[in-house]
């Protein structure tokens, strides 16, 4: 077998269909029995031996896409028809014909596809989906990276839109799904053991009436691997972590002018209460904000842990030897003018990295918005936002999106572990931040905005490792052609194939979202409430309509709303009036007794029939009463002001007591509670902390945000179970 002959694929070697099936058979992938015929007479004899009807195909190393070329004849019913088919095939194939393949005509109403292709970033990718002539038209396929676990294979099978055709179908038995799993896992093992395989295409993979898959056509392309791509050297988590805890900072390019980066950053740092030493560097010398300005960092008398650099790009090169002399190993490079500007800027960036590496200097950026660590009062970003300390680690390849998210987090009460705008990632890439957050005990949730990755395989492996311990929530920029073009000009790096990227995210357990605010919703949920153990939801609502809408949303997001048990109904009967709904959702019918929601909530948390509770309309009533009070003041001035204030004070006290009650119930029963405000005011937040409780009270503006967040938390629970890490 000449497996490495040159072909239309350049330096690749295309196996004949016969060779491809023999190769697949050695890896226990079911292939149709067939015979090779040298000429027309042999083809006719082979058909009689197999038994009619048969399929006759042209065989040749360069004969790909045989159906389109008329080189496949199916359901051939007698010897004369075989001879006639073979003559036609020979005419159409010409000198490329090396013989004929004759195989039994396998019937089956369902055709699937399975295969492998090689992605430049991620390596071997396994494919599965709807096959036959509809593969390209419908594009109903799923992907996973090799190596593939059996759990991965089951997940990708269940992911196709047409998954129902795997059930009993039009008189044919249900597909043997474990046989499909075997095929996908064996394909994965095959390409792992044979790294020279560049492509495998099994199409169609026909499902027999008995539900068994069999490959009736196959293509395998082999070839020598391309030159090994050069990736950035990994940066140790301890080095990345040191950027978040400098004891002394020098601003190189410090300025006293409002609007200059060299002024914005230093005022943010000092205004945020940083307690370490701060030095200003500018060749002009003098004073800024009453502090001395050094002409060079080598003039600084004390130790410097980090240099924050805002000088023009080409002047940064002269700074490297000065940093080496001063033994400064960390540079936060704010300056732009590098890889994001094009080829010349990229060459400049690579040279800078080479020089820095030789000098023992590590660089965040260039073209970064900055970094912050609320746990150390270290706020060094271009926008003066200062979220509270918390457990959400944030990395954004867009500094503007990053600091906007920080601003929302500050308003909504979502605590931040640390933030970095990674910029061009010339030396420290998203994979390095992931691995740093992996070992950081204060990080409970990781939030990422990503436009491209430097090393796809490392990104996937790091994220999957992190995901087994703490959720990773990701927003991908550049998912459309226009977005990818914009991302390229922004970061200086091309976005990878989004289908493969999305598949890698699913396989790694990354929770991928579509909107920036979804990042915050999920970060709030993951950092505030326990994971649900299942998908059963109990709903408590102040009014019936909200319960109906929330039930519909639960069904849309694959969450179940189970019926109440007789025991539950009997218990709630004791406190609600006779006309309550007696069902899930539990409508507490607008009752004003403050003990009712406290009692009903605990009953639902005790209930073994639900895994999470959503409560609607209990919090936020203060705003309704406040507006009513304004109307009363205007309509009935004789109403005592003290009465109005006492009502509002009582409502404030109730809402705080209610939130504390929810937190204590979550700690006690280890189930999540998600709330929805009936109204929101300017000072209302999403997350409320109480004392030393691990859980926090969580309230969203809309039912959809609550349901969607709970659904994604359940998806993450399923990932942990597949990984054996739940």
Q: What would you say this structure looks like, in words?
A:
- With 726 residues, this protein is of the alpha/beta class.
- The protein has four domains: 33-104, Dna Ligase, domain 1 (2-Layer Sandwich), CATH 3.30.1490; 110-222, ATP-grasp fold, B domain (D-amino Acid Aminotransferase, Chain A, domain 1); 237-527, Rossmann fold; 529-722, Rossmann fold.
- It contains 22 helices and 31 strands.
- The strands form five sheets. Strands 1, 6, 7, 8, 9, 10 and 11 form a seven-stranded antiparallel sheet that branches. A seven-stranded mixed sheet has the order 14-15-13-12-16-17-18, sandwiched between helices.
- Strand 30 (687-688) and strand 31 (697-700) form a beta hairpin.
- The protein is flat, with a radius of gyration of 32 Å.
- The two termini are 49 Å apart.
- The relative contact order is 0.07.
- Residues 1-10 and 486-496 have low confidence and may be disordered.
Taking all Cα atoms into account, the compactness measure Rg is 32 Å
User: What overall form do the CA principal axes indicate?
Assistant: flat
Look up the CATH topology of the largest domain: Rossmann fold
Give me the CATH architecture of the largest domain, please. Answer: 3-Layer(aba) Sandwich
Model regions low in confidence, pLDDT < 50 over at least 5 residues: 1-10, 486-496
Q: Report the top-level CATH class of the largest domain.
A: Alpha Beta
Largest sheet: 7 strands, antiparallel
CATH superfamily of the largest domain: Succinyl-CoA synthetase domains
Distance between the termini: 49 Å
Q: Structural class of the secondary structure composition?
A: alpha/beta
Number of helices: 22
Strand content: 15-25%
Give the overall average pLDDT.
Answer: 91
**Number of spatially distinct domains:** 4
- Total beta strand runs: 31
Helix content range of the residues, please? 25-40%
């Amino acid at each position: 077998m000449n497996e490495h002959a040159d072909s239309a694929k350049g330096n690749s070697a295309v196996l004949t269909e016969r060779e491809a099936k023999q190769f697949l058979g050695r890896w226990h992938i079911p292939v149709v029995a067939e015979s090779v015929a040298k000429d027309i007479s042999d083809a006719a004899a082979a058909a009689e031996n197999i038994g009619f009807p048969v399929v006759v195909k042209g065989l040749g190393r360069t004969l790909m896409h045989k159906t389109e070329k008329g080189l496949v004849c199916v359901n051939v019913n007698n010897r004369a028809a075989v001879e006639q088919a073979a003559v036609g095939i020979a005419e159409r194939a010409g000198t490329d014909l090396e013989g004929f393949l004759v195989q039994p005509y396998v019937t089956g109403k369902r055709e699937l596809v399975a295969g492998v292709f090689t992605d430049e970033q991620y390596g071997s990718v396994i494919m599965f989906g709807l096959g036959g002539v509809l593969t390209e038209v419908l594009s109903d396929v799923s992907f996973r990276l090799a190596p593939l676990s059996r759990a991965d294979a089951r997940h990708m099978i269940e992911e196709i839109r047409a998954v129902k055709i795997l059930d009993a179908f039009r008189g044919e038995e249900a597909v043997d799904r474990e046989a499909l799993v075997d095929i996908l896992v064996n394909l994965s093992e095959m390409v792992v053991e044979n790294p020279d395989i560049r492509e495998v295409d099994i199409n169609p993979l026909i499902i027999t009436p008995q539900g068994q898959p069999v490959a009736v056509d196959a293509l395998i392309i082999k070839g020598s691997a391309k030159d090994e791509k050069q990736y950035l050297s990994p940066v140790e988590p301890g080095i990345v972590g040191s950027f978040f805890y400098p004891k002394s900072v020098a601003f190189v390019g410090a300025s006293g002018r409002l609007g200059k980066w060299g002024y914005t950053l230093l005022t943010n740092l000092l205004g945020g209460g940083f307690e370490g030493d701060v030095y200003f560097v500018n060749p002009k010398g003098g004073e800024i904000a009453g502090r001395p300005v050094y002409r060079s960092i080598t003039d600084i008398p004390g130790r410097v842990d980090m240099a924050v650099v805002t000088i023009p790009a080409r002047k940064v090169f002269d700074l490297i030897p000065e940093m080496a002399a001063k033994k400064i190993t960390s540079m936060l490079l704010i300056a732009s003018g590098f890889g994001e500007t094009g080829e010349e800027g990229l060459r400049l960036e690579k040279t800078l990295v080479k020089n820095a590496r030789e000098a023992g200097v590590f660089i965040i950026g260039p073209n970064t918005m900055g970094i912050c660590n609320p746990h150390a009062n270290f706020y060094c970003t271009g926008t003066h936002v200062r979220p509270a300390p918390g457990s959400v680690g944030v990395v954004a390849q867009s500094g503007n999106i990053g600091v906007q998210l920080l601003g929302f987090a500050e308003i909504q009460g979502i605590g931040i572990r640390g933030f970095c705008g990674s910029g061009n990632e010339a030396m420290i890439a998203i994979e390095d931040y992931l691995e740093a957050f992996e070992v950081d005990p204060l990080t409970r949730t990781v939030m990422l905005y990503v436009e491209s990755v430097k090393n796809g395989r490392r990104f996937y492996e790091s994220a999957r490792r992190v995901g087994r311990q703490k959720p990773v929530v990701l927003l991908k920029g550049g998912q459309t052609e226009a977005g990818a073009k914009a991302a390229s000009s922004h970061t200086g790096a091309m976005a990878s194939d989004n289908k493969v990227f999305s598949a890698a995210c699913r396989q790694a357990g990354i929770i991928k979202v579509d909107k920036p605010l979804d990042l915050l919703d999920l970060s709030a949920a993951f950092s505030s409430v326990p994971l649900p153990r299942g998908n059963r939801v109990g709903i408590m609502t102040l009014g019936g309509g909200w319960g109906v809408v929330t039930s519909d949303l639960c069904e849309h997001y694959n969450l179940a709303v189970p019926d109440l048990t007789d025991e539950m109904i009997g218990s709630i009967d004791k406190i609600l009036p006779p006309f309550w709904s007696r069902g899930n959702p539990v409508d507490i019918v607008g009752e004003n007794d403050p003990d009712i929601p406290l009692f009903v909530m605990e009953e639902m948390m005790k209930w073994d029939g639900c895994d999470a509770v959503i409560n609607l309309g209990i919090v936020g009533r203060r705003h309704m009463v406040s507006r009513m009070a304004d109307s009363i003041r205007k309509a009935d001035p004789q109403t005592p002001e003290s009465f109005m204030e006492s009502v509002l004070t009582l409502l404030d006290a109730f809402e705080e007591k209610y939130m504390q009650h929810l937190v204590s119930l979550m700690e006690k029963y280890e189930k999540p509670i998600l709330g929805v405000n009936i109204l929101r005011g300017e000072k209302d937040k999403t997350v409320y902390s109480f004392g030393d409780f691990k859980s926090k009270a969580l309230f969203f503006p809309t039912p959809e945000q609550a349901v969607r967040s709970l659904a994604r938390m359940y998806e993450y629970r399923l990932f942990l179970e597949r990984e054996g890490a739940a």
